[in-house]
Amino acid sequence: MKSVKEATSTPLLSPLYSGPPYHYVDAKLFLALFNPTEESVRALLPAPLKPSQMPLAGLLFAEQPCKEAGTFMESGMLVQCMFDNPKTKEEEVGVYFCYNYVDTDVAQAAGREIWGYPRKRAKISLDWKKDTLVAKTQRDGVTILKAKCTLNDDGEWIDSGPNINVKVIPSVTGKGHDLAVVTAAYLKYDIKKGRSGEVEVELKNGPHDDFSKVVIETNMIGLYFDCDILVPEGTIVGKVKM
After folding, report:
1. Mean pLDDT within 67-79
2. What is the predicted pLDDT for the residue at 1?
């Protein structure tokens, strides 16, 4: 039995998850990139995050075989952003997770409590028909995220900077927050194979999921990768005013 000092998370005597780093082996990663309107980007990014020069966002769908958290499915929406790195005193590019979904309790709790990923539970699928991939996220009986791509070409990985999240912990008093910070995690990717093709993206509001702030101007490209991923411990890069 672990002592309280040895516990990494609650419940103390049988922690739900271990601490970072997390290792994903043979992950399947599908990115459906699109250009949102500038107004959408500004609406999705909380201060102190700022829009990048080109409005860029994407849907993420993935099968994540994780050594520490077990295999889970993941999806979400990422928006390219700029943030000030207090260590380097320079402005950097990152990708902010404005929506994030998983299908296990361990992945949900670990992602929210360690790094601040805004995770909810959902049913997530990656379905292949020959070279065509259809990815879906369903909640409350509604397909809230969907992307379709026929992968005919090679795909090249482009470093998009760290994963950025806003980690918010409400106060037990019901007033204010015990913690409201911006976190950054610099993931490492070992790309084994990449494919690409034209992509179609669909968003639909559900009873508890609102995408009304997202306006898509153009679909860009679909990218699929077989890869290994290292998710390290993160760092605090800013504070958020709630």
Report:
1. 97
2. 42
